[in-house]
């Protein structure tokens, strides 16, 4: 394949290569008449000329690339919408995203930072598959943006979900439906999940607003998977009828799936005899349950867009405090009024 050169464009347009360079680079093009500019662009299109991106980056000191280093996002569909949001903004701005998934290997992370720095990317984003506090790795540029994680020592632009407000929204759905015996199926403390105490704070806030005395017996912890949710929900559903919860707020949708299983195993219908709210709006889980699960969505796409907008200078961020992205309620069919008591 013969490479088309700037001189070919110049010959077709009947101008000098210097004129072609000015027009196609946008540099000093005001010195060229509109008619000549039109002629040059038409000639470039006709001969199929493509600017040399390497040469252009050397000249402008911009590569039009953004490095995105993550732990396991690329291999985890759960959080893939963050990549979609970041990539959409990058594409809109004429940038290419270079993604490196490190599988939480420190050596791979160092290698990725060195490689992206060597490529002189215009910006960097450091992302996590789930909300956590991180030690910022050595070599991460000061203006890099943290996505779905917060720096242990502050001082960095970062975006995370508003977990506490999401917990508030979840439990308000249940209180609004008339429930007063509301359980929280929580993740065990050994997993060290940042979201757990924040969502629990939201749960307790709404109980206080509704004048409901928290019952420690209704705060059940388990492994945050379907099996853990089934075991925790089963323990609560085996309580005497007068103390058994009529509703459950689950740490995530997988635990909610387990709560469904526990209810069905005991002949209880959702939402007729047990209302359930999840968290995450996990793809292939929440909407596919029977009945479809009311849940709190993690704003992965919106966080990805926000991080890329900050990285490219399209919006400002306060490095003193992570930006907390709202987590909306996704209403489906798993919440209803509490079952009537025998006295009713």
TrEMBL record:
What are the residue boundaries of the HTH lacI-type domain, all occurrences included? 4-60
**Which GO terms label this protein's molecular function in UniProt?**
DNA-binding transcription factor activity; transcription cis-regulatory region binding
| Annotated segments matching region Disordered | 321-344
Keyword field contains Transmembrane helix: no
User: Mind telling me which InterPro entries this protein's record contains?
Assistant: HTH_LacI (IPR000843), LacI/GalR-like_sensor (IPR046335), Lambda_DNA-bd_dom_sf (IPR010982), Peripla_BP_I (IPR028082)
Q: Any stretches that span the bilayer, and where are they? A: none
User: Which keywords annotate this record?
Assistant: DNA-binding, Repressor, Transcription, Transcription regulation
Q: What is this protein called?
A: Transcriptional regulator, LacI family
Source species taxonomy: Bacteria, Bacillati, Actinomycetota, Actinomycetes, Pseudonocardiales
């Amino acid at each position: 394949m013969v490479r088309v050169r700037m001189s070919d464009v110049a010959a077709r347009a009947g101008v000098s290569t210097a004129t072609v360079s000015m027009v196609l680079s946008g540099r000093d093009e005001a010195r060229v008449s509109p008619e000549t500019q039109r002629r040059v662009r038409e000639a470039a299109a006709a001969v199929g000329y493509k600017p040399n991106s390497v040469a252009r980056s050397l000249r402008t000191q911009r590569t039009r690339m953004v490095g995105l280093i993550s732990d396991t996002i690329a291999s985890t569909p759960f959080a893939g919408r963050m990549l979609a949001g970041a990539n959409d903004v990058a594409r809109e701005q004429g940038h290419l995203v270079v993604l490196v998934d490190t599988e939480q290997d420190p050596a791979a992370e160092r290698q990725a930072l060195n490689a992206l720095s060597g490529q002189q990317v215009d910006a960097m984003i450091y992302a996590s598959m789930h909300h956590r506090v991180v030690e910022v790795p050595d070599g991460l540029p000061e203006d890099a943006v943290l996505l779905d994680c917060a720096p242990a020592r502050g001082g960095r632009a970062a975006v995370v979900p508003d977990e506490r407000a999401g917990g508030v929204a979840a439990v308000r759905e249940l209180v609004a439906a008339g429930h007063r015996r509301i359980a929280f199926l929580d993740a065990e403390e050994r997993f060290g999940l940042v979201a757990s105490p924040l969502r629990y704070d939201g749960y307790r806030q709404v109980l206080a607003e509704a004048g409901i005395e928290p019952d420690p017996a209704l705060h059940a912890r388990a492994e945050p998977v379907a099996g853990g949710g089934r075991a925790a929900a089963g323990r609560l559903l085996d309580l005497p009828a007068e103390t058994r919860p009529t509703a459950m707020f689950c740490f995530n949708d997988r635990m909610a799936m387990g709560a469904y299983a526990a209810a069905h195993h005991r002949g209880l219908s959702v939402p007729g005899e047990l209302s359930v709210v999840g968290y995450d709006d996990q793809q292939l889980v929440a909407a596919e349950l029977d009945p479809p699960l009311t849940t709190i969505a993690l704003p992965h796409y919106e966080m990805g867009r926000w991080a890329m907008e900050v990285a490219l200078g399209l919006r400002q961020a306060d490095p003193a405090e992570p930006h907390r992205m709202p987590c909306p309620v996704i209403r489906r069919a798993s919440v209803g009024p509490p079952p009537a008591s025998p006295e009713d």
